Each structure stands twice: as C-alpha cells, then as structure tokens.
C-alpha cells in the first residue's frame, strides 16, 4: 500500500508537512465513500504514529497535529485508539526499548484526545499500568474475570417456578383470570412485561407458560392468539417454533401420548401463520420414510390375508390358527404407535385449516392419512360444514328437516359453498383426499349423493347459456370422478347399507347407462386394487359368496337370498362376478339364483346387468364348443339366466340390447341367443319347432287364444315385463335397427361368418338368427301401437332396396303395419258413417284396404324384374305377403278347446273343498272373464275373416295375368311367394298351404291347382337339401298341410266333386287365356285324381330314398325331419312305406357310431313309421287298378276326361310324350320342336278332317309330338345301351315271366312291387327262358334296331334307378324346366318323371297344340281318325328312324315303313269286325267291378301299373291292331318294364309301342293270335290269379 505520509512532509514538518497532513486528513474525512475514508484515515494516523515510534517525529508535534485532526470525524478518537492498540501489540514484541518508550510518550501526550475507558478496553493491561491508567495489571485482570463471570455465568432471570414462585404465580394468575370483561391482550402483555422485569422471569419460560395456559383454555383463541403474536415481537422468530418442538419431543417416548390440546394449539398457531409448517414438521415423529414403509407393509399384509382366504383349508385346526392370526392382527391395529403428524393433521382439520392439512396429506402416501378413522371423521366434518348452505338450499329431500350443521367459529376456515361451482373448487378436492373413507360417515355420503342428484336435475334441464353449459360439463365430469374415486369405493367399505345403495341409485339413474357401466367397470376391475382395505374386502366378499353359493338350493332360497342381498349392498360387482361364473358352469343354479336375487337394491340390479354384459363380452371365452358344431354351454346358460332375471326384476335393458346390436354390427350372431331368451321370457313369445298342430292352430287366433293355447308354458303376467322391453327398445331407438341387423345377419351368418365354421353350426346360427327375428318381430307387432309402428318401419321398397332387407323379412316386419293401418282406417270410416249393414261394413273394409295397400302395390314393383309382373300382379304379390293365417281362417276348434278347458277348471274350483271361498270367487271370476274374452275374440275374428274373403273375391280376377304360360305363372308363384314364405315360420308354412287352397277355392282365373300341387310334390330333393334344420321342419309342416288337403280330396268322391269337380284349378286342358270356359270333359275326374295322388306319393318316396342314400349329413337330417312332419299323411301306400322303412333302417345301422344325432332322428322316425303301419293300405286300394279284360274296350272312348272321344292311343301317347320330354336335353328339344312342326303340317295337309267325337281337335298333332318324344328318348337310350345292357339282362329275364304267365291285373300288382322292392324280385329260370324267346322273336322282325333300343332303354333305366345319382336328377330337372319353357306345345306337368293321368298331360298338350293347329281341325268321326292314325304312325316312325338309326339310309327306311303300313292297314280292316265281337263276349264274362266306365279303368290301370302304355295300348294302337296284338305287345312291354322306375318303364313302352305299331305287323299277327288263344283259355281264372299274386306280394 503506498504511504500516505511522504518522508518530505516529516522532514519539513514545521514548514509545510504539518499543514499538508491536516489537509490530507480533512480531504479523507470529507470523502463520501465512508468505508474508504475510514481505512485511509486509519492508515494516515498509523503512519504518523509510527514515525513518532521510530523517532522521526516528536510526540508533542504529533499530539498537536492530532488535536487539530480529531475534530474532523466523530469516531476519530476510536480510530486513534485502534491505531494505539495495533502499535501496542507491535512495540511490545520489539526488542528495541526506545521505540516502546516513544510509543508510551505518544499515548501519554494524546490522553486528552482519547478517553481512559476506550483505552482500557483496547490496550494491554501492562501498557495501561505503564501509562498509569491502572495501578496494577494483575489486579485489573482478576477484576475483569470476576465481572465476566458475573455477566455471563451468574443467573439473574428465573425460569423455574420454584426459583421465583411469586413472580410465576402472579403470571399464572394474570393469564388465568376471568377474561370475559374488558381485559385485552395488550393490557395483559404490559402486566407480563412488568412481572418479567420485577421478578427477573425468563421470557422464554414465560412464553412456554402462556402456551400451557392457552392449551388449558382453548376457548379463548381471540385472547391468546393476539397475546402470543404481540409477545413474539420481543423474541426471536424461531423461539416459538423451538418451544413447541421441545414440547412435542417430550411426548416422543414409546409409551408417551401427545395430548390433543397441544395439537390444537400448534394447529391454531399454524393457521395464524405464527409458525411455519416446515419448521415445525421436522420436530414431529415418525419420519416420512417410516410412514412410507408402514404403508407398504400394510399392502403386503392385505395381500397375505387375501392369499390365506383363497387357500383351501382342510382341517379344523387350520381354521383355529386362522382365527388366532386374525385376533393378533386386530390387536396390532388397535394400538398404533403415536403419530404426531397425523395428530396435528386432525387438529388442523378440526379447526378448518384445510390449506395446511392438505400440505401434510401431500407428504404421505395416498389415503394413508384418511385411513385413520379420526382424521377421516374430522375431514368429513369439515365437508359437512362446507356444504351446509348449498345442501340446505338444494339437497334436503321434501318433508325432511335434517339437523343443521353450525359453521366453524374461525374466519380462516374454508368458505362455505353456496353454488355448485364453489362446491367443485373446495369440497370435491376434500372428497378426493377422503377416498374410500367417506364410508365412515354415511350421512355425509347421503348428502353428497343428494347434491349430485340436484346437480343432475339442473344439468339435464336445458336453457342455460353456452358458458354455463361448459361449466356444467366440467362439473359433471368432476361429479363422475368423485363417484368413481369416492362414492363407490366408500360403498364397498360400508357395512351392507341398503339405504345408501338406494340413495346412490337415485343419482345413478340420472346418468346415461354408458356412464354408469363405465363406473361399474372401474369399480369392479380397478378400485379394489387401489387400497389395502379394499383388497381385503374383496377377498372377504368372494369368500362369503363361495360359502353362500355352496349351500344354495331350491329349498333354502329365502335365507340364502337374504345373505346374498346383504352381501350385495356393499360389493355387488365382486359378488355377481362370482355368481355368474358359477352359473356358467352349472346351469341348474339358474332357477335358485334368480329366485334368491329378490332382496337386491335397484343399484345392484343395474350392476348385475353390467356384470352380465361383461361376462358375455369376455374375450377369453370361446363361444363354440370344442367340436365347433354347437354354441358353448356357458353362453347358453348366461342367455337363459338373462331371460329369467330381466323378466323377474326391473332391470334396465338398454345396455344389453345395445350390446346385442353392436355384436350384430360386428357380424357376430352368437349373442342373438340372449335376445331370443329375453324376448321369450319377458314377452312370453316362444319360438320353437316342436309345436303341436293344436298349438299352431291356436297361434292363428287372437292374442288371448295365443297366450292360452299357443305356447308350451302358461304365459302369465308378461304385461309389465313386455312393457319394459318395449320402452327400452323405443327409448333407445333399437327396435328397427335390431330387426334390420338380424335380417341382414341371416345372410351374414352364411356368407361372412360361415366360411371357417362347421356347416352344422352355420345352420344352427342361421336358425337362431331367423328365429330371433321372427320372435322379435312378433313381439313388436303385438306390443307397438299403430303410430309407433308406422313411425318406425319404413316402406317396403325402402326396407328392401336401401336397407337390403331380404323380402321375406321385410314383409314380415311390414305386415303388422298394414294390418294396424287398415284396421285404424276401417274404424275411421265406420265412425264417419253409421251404416250397420254387413255389406256397408265390407265395403268400408275394402275401401280402407285399397287406401292402405295401393302405395304398397306401387312399392313392390321395384322389388323384382318387370318380367315377373307379366305372370302375377303386384296386387296378388302384396296380398299374399301382407295376409296372415289370422285373416284366412278362424280356428273354431281351438277356441272351443280353450273354452272347455276353462269350464273344466271352473268345475274343479267348485269341487275343491279346501280352497277358501274368496279365492274361489276370484278364480271363478278370472276364468269367466277369460272365457268371455275368448268368445268375443272368436266373434271378432270371424267377422274379420269374412271381410277378408269378400275382399279377396273382388281382387282375384286381377291376380294372375299369365301373359306367358300358366306353367310360368305357377313357377313365379312358387318361387316368389310360396317357397320363401313356407320356410319363414311354422304359421307361415300352414298359411302357404291354406293360401294355395284358398286361391283354388276362389276359382281364381289362370291358376292351375293341379299344376301347383304337382310342382310342390314332384321333386323335393333340392328344396329339402337347401334347408337348415328348422327350415326343414317348417317345410315339412307345409308339405304336411298340402298333403292333408290332397288326402281329403283323395278320400272321398263326394268331397272331391264338391271341392274340385267343377273348379278351374282342375282343368287339364289349358287353353289360351280367353277360353277358360268350363267343358266338363276338360276336368280331371276323381279316379284319375287318385292316380295323380299315387304318383305324388311315389315321387315323395323317390326323393326321400335319394336323400337318405346320399350319405350327406344335411340331406339325411332334413329329409328325416320332413318325413317326421308329414307322417300323418304319408306314406299311405304299403309298398312305399316298406321301401322307406328299409332305407331308414339302413341309416340307423350306418349312423349309430358315426353321427349319433342322425341315428337318433332315424330311430325316432323309424319307431313312428312302424306305429303308422296298420293304417297303410295296399296300392290297389289307394287307387283303382284295372283287370286285364279291360283290353277289349271299344277303340273310341266317349267323354273320357283325357282323350274325350278320341282314339285311346291319343291319351296314351300324351302321357308317353310327357314322359319322353323329361329325359331330353335342351339341344334335342330344338330339333324335336322343328320335327314336330314339319310332321304336323304334313299330317294336317293329309287329313284335314281329324277330330275327336267331342270336338276336341288336334289329336293327330299330339300323337306326332308324342312319337317324336319317344324317338328322341329312344335315341338317347341307344347310347346308354352300349354301357348298360349286360348288367340289365337278368332283370329283363325276370320280367319276361311276369309278362307272359300272369293275367294283366296280376302283372300290374307285380310290377308295382317289383318297382319298389327290386331286391326281392325272384329271378327264376323260366323267366330267363321267356325273355330269351322274346328276344329271338324280336330279332326276326325288321325292326330289330328299334327293339334293341327299347330294351337297352328299359335296362338302362332300371340300372339307373338302382344307382340313383344326383347328377342324373339334376339333369332331369334341368331338362324338365327347359321343356316347361320350350314353347306352347309343352305338357302341363313337364317336370313329372313318372306316370301321370292321361287326362292331365293330354289335355295340356292338346291345349298347346290347339294354339297352332286349331285352324285346320274340322269335325269327323272316329273311323277317319283310325285311318289317319296309321299314316301318323308311319310318319312318326320315319321321323323316329331318322333320329335314332343313322346307320340305315333314309330312303330304305321309308320303303320298309311303307310296306309295313300297307300290310297293317289291310289286316286292320279285316280284323276290325272280329275285335268288336270279342270285346262284347268278354264284357259279358267280366264281373261288375270290371264294368266301370272304360276311361276310368284305363286311367286307373295306367296309373297303378306304372306302365301307362300297356292298357292304353290295347285300346289305342290303331284300329287295325287286333286285341291279340295288343295283348302280346303288352306282355312284351311288361317284361321289359316291371321292377323298374315307373317313369322310365313308361318311356320304354311308349317307344316300343310307337315303333312296333308302325313296323312290326307281321310279328304282331303271330303274337296276337297266340295271345287270343291264351286269353280264351284263361278267361275265367284271371280274377283268382290276380288275388293270389297280390297276396304273395303283399
């Protein structure tokens, strides 16, 4: 540091140095920077003094200048003393004594400047002694020690009461006096100060005593808090905190217990910010780490308890151990170590210092603090206080008084909530800290819930501003959080408080179910893991639930139910989860569980609904059994439980229904099972395929009859439950969506779900989906009001085109709407005009129908291609789909049955002696009321049906337009109406059959009943194969009803004549539309109808056998179902029944091990079939079979319904033709039609006067066509012959015997049997020989080729029949369909492949031919016909040869044929007369039974033998053919056809006859003569033989 005093100044001190120094000191002391000036002055003075010590300056000079300088600053003496002090130390260390002397002299010189006291403080005692300031340094030292001891070590303030008892006594008296007067804290403070001064009291001890007194007088907050605050101004800030900490430390012994008063004082001081929480917190025990450890330990313990509870305990000792452990645990929890932090927290909460309390809670694990009951209760109390004003305003229920909660006295407590917004800011936060421990205060729980309810009311009422809405939304989400985190967990910890549960439901029911279910999900799956207490509760609940469920039976439902109820009030989710898991395993628990749940609260029922949905949606569970063919049993059990529980208890359905809808949207149809069960149980609408016919009949009546007689269970009291279901559907707009989703899902099951699933399961799911749709639609139809229905269901075109609903389902949904609509319109019209006449009513009804249905007629046009409406009108289509069985017929027998049941019940009630009279009266009144209802309903339905029939009568003429052909019309009718609807539901199946009958009874123009029935029965293989199980059952019902009608007509001629005789549906000649006028000859007569029915039975057998032999699961199952359903009416014929029985027996054997379900079905059917056997009849009783003598009928038959007045050959050929056509392929058809046209033209030009005696023209064209057909089929068979002839020969041989040895009728019987029972036909040597002879004879003729073709055909046919293949059937059907569409000349029953009544086919052909050839016909008599026949045959034979034997040249063929024809003509003329005589003779010989009208016998024989041609041949060959020739020919045909399929044999014979007729006259001559001789010899014995043979075969 640079010297401030230069050496020059010292040298020239007197001259200028002194002044310079003074100037320097002045300058330094005036320096504004105080510190710098201070140091510089110190340095300047030091340097001056040092110069003096060194001797450079004299001490007096220095003292003089110091005297001048000393005034410059106030602290100059002190600075100078400091300088002397430093120099003192420095000089005392120096060895040079002179320097020390200089220092002493300087100090002495300056004594007047610095006071003695300052020097004594700072200089060494020895220096002071040398200066003379003190006498002896040693004494001075001793004295200073004494003073210091007195100062620092001698007590002058008393802090112990006994040390200064008077002072402290006065202090306590001062603090403890009555403070109620005008005494203020300031006054007392002054007194305290005086006492401290007077009695030397220790101020810290005084503060401690003030706190002690405050602890004892807590009510005087207003006095003590200001007092302490004022007192603290005299102390250091930390003092108060240290004193409190010291007090808390005192109680921290293990046995110590901190008094609550201390906590309170600390809390109040904290609240008034007199101390900081952080400062005090460190003085409290236990430490935070210890608290966290304890919390973790609690969680572990809870888990251990759970583990112990879930352990399987075997011996009683273990249970005792368990109990001991429990007791120990309880003891542990009873004595927790003193936790000062929690004590302080409780005190804070009690005085309402929420801010500090929250800080303490935040230091601890969540809910740790509130898990201590006192804290939870304190916090609850704080909440009580805070919510009081709001609760009083909006929460108190009407009529309740409630006890008001007084507010906290201090003003620093949280502000009380006046609005929901304030509630959110303050109270919700407090509740979150409380968590599950709100359970300690049920009253607060109820208050919070009521506030929630009040808020929801406000929230749901509209009209608030946007800002308010946003606030409300925030509030709502906060309320949901509080519910999730506080209310539900608290409910779990409450001890079965049902009232709380109901109170909570009051708020919950205002939430949408989505929120509720979300809350339940959190409660069930997350809440129980969040807290050790809840973990324990969950385990205990499951343990208890197990205990109850183990003991639950039907007998102890009530006590068990009470226990379940008790357990469910607090922990429903856990309980129901366990119960449902048990139900899924054991379905026999369902009934007792359902009954035992009657003690639940509304909240619990809602939770149950959620638990059910959660169980259903469980992704871990498979919905299929392991075999992948059936729905899992757990799902079935749950569905069944759902139905029962939702019906019995008022549980909200919306969630469940929405779940099903969502599953459907996702393309999953398993869960429809639930909907099905729910609707069945709640609405009482059953869907079952097992309904009896009586039940079905009852289902066609009104609602009352349905309920009484239509279901298996007596459906009672479904009014409320069905109303609930309806409301749930309408409120959540689920009615139509569910319907549409189900309707769409039916196809989804097959095309979307079905890919990877087993076919059987796909069928099951499809049926389930369909059944549920039918059931659900039925529910809506019967429960929705007209307005509801019309408002919700769109029009039919929208349903089909926009929603892609299948047509059958769309109409099913719309049908009730039309019915509702029509009835409401009808009622309006009735009210408008009061006309009471029946006609007026009918007219009004028809008007209302037109009003309602007109838009529907328009709408349906878009559903199909325009071409469809050429055949059937939209009106007919809409009428068919919009009506139901209720509209068509009144089930009188069902009404009578139910009324009689009620009468019996009433009688039983009268007879019952034990029943109390008032109950008797009630029951009788109920029965009477029901009876009246039923009778009223019957009357109402009767009137309705009459109105509907009137309406149909008016409509029918516009129904069927038949712009193409009647065949096409029937196709459309079956395809678009009957088939889709008959498999829709059981009632629809019955409806379809009834509707067909109704259309027939109404004499609807252009409707061929015969054709319709024929198409239904002819080939059922494809329809059966494409059905699901339930559809097969319904299809069976449909066939059953159709067969019932047919059987009724078949049973009695009178019924037939009455119901079919003169009806257009039984016309067999289908003229052009304009000609439908009734010619009696065009009608099918009774006997031929019986033939037709037999053919249908045969067809059904053929189809059934085919299905049974395919080996395919679906075919076999479905045909067995169908057969079981039609058992009452089929089989009626013995041999058909036997054939079926054998096939079914075979199935039983084959499937026993492989497919048990098929085995069960087959066994069931087999048993029922055997029981029907006594009712079966032989074929000849089912339809009349002709004896052989019939051959001698006159060639021309008058008025025969098929070939009226025309040569019988025509009639035969018509049938043949039809048979032939079925076998042809499409390309041949073309050739054929062209050929036929040529031939027709040729014959028409040759014979312009061909006609039948009755005026039915164009018979020739028919013959040509038939022959054509034969030729074609012959050609087809020719190819087959090459492959199949060898295999067929044995059968052919066998047939030869029948042909020659037996009279005609006998053979017929044999043929029939042989056809069905091929296996049993004997093949003797004789037969073989005869067949050989026949073959030789035929080879000798010119027509070898033709004969071989025929033989090969028949054998091939037989071979084919033996090994039916689906390809062949398909081909046949294709051909028949093509034939049906192949122009006007197609036979009516184009699709038939077995003998058909001549009348039916011939008439159809005739009608069709007539359209082409009518112009050329002119009247003539039978002889011309006969002549022309030969020519026709000639031409047809030529035609035939051209088609079938390409090896021969055409010219040669023609020559051969001409020669043959010439010969035959000559012979025929010669023998004509002989024939007449023979016939007459024979007529006389025959019995009465054989004297029936020839046409009938022909037909019957034709039908019965299955060899249509044989009998007819005799009458129809051509006039030139003698009876003997016919006989012979017939034998030949029989030998080839017996034992074969009817249809095939006929074809064979037709071809044979046509060829033989034209080419084999020489051979025929021989055969005829032989035959004639034989016949003469055997004339009388024929009858007996016939009976014998038929007996054998039977």
Largest sheet: none
- End-to-end CA span: 154 Å
Anisotropy-based shape: elongated
From the alpha carbons, calculate the radius of gyration and give it in angstroms: 59 Å
Structural class: mainly alpha
Tell me the number of strands: 0
Report mean pLDDT, rounded to a whole number.
76
Q: Regions with pLDDT < 50 over 5+ consecutive residues?
A: 1072-1078, 1188-1329, 1336-1450, 1486-1569, 1577-1594
Classify the helix fraction into a percent range: over 70%
Q: How many H/I helices?
A: 74
Share of residues in strands: under 5%
Question: What report would you give on this structure?
Answer:
The protein is an all-alpha fold and 1594 residues long. The protein is built from 74 helices and no strands. Mean pLDDT is 76; it is low at 1072-1078, 1188-1329, 1336-1450, 1486-1569 and 1577-1594.
Report a brief summary of the structure.
By secondary structure, the chain is mainly alpha-helical. Helices cover 72% and strands 0% of the residues. Helix 29 packs across helix 31.
Features:
1594 residues; 72% helix
Secondary-structure map:
Layout lengths: L6 H5 L1 H18 L3 H21 L4 H11 L6 H18 L3 H13 L6 H7 L2 H7 L5 H17 L11 H12 L8 H15 L3 H14 L4 H11 L6 H13 L9 H12 L5 H5 L6 H23 L5 H19 L5 H12 L2 H9 L10 H23 L24 H15 L7 H19 L5 H28 L4 H11 L4 H13 L6 H20 L5 H14 L1 H14 L4 H7 L5 H15 L16 H16 L5 H12 L6 H12 L9 H7 L3 H8 L8 H13 L3 H19 L5 H25 L2 H7 L3 H7 L4 H26 L5 H23 L13 H9 L2 H4 L3 H20 L5 H39 L10 H17 L3 H16 L7 H10 L2 H5 L3 H23 L1 H9 L24 H25 L2 H13 L8 H21 L1 H17 L6 H4 L25 H16 L2 H21 L12 H43 L2 H13 L8 H16 L3 H19 L3 H16 L16 H16 L8 H23 L5 H36 L8 H12 L2 H9 L6 H15 L4 H18 L1 H18 L3 H12 L1
Helix pairs in contact: 2-3, 3-5, 3-6, 4-6, 5-6, 8-9, 10-11, 10-12, 11-13, 12-13, 12-15, 15-19, 17-27, 19-20, 19-21, 21-22, 21-23, 22-24, 23-24, 23-25, 24-26, 27-28, 27-29, 28-29, 28-30, 29-31, 29-32, 32-34, 33-38, 34-39, 35-36, 38-39, 39-42, 42-43, 43-44, 43-47, 46-47, 48-49, 48-50, 49-52, ...
